[in-house]
Specification:
alpha+beta; 6 strands; Aminopeptidase; globular; two-stranded antiparallel sheet
Amino acid sequence: MNKSIKEKYKVSPVDKIEIKDWILKKHYAKTMPSIMYAFGLLNEENILQRVCCYGTPANNHNNSLGDYKCIELVRLVLNDGHEKNIASYYVKCRY
């Protein structure tokens, strides 16, 4: 029986230093953004497969919604060759 994405992978907070090479070498921008929260998608062997980072918006002049401070997805770095819909699962996962 095939395992679901949720059974094959786990999402875990990661340290910014731990993912710096991923962002600088794999992401097309080749720059480090302002990161507030970083999460990794780990496979069953606990090997990092994807990196998702949230931080302050580039336009810092209008980054609130009423009483709430806004953050945005600032980097999504993926390895190729994974099953369909894994990026969607990862980004919408409740960390």
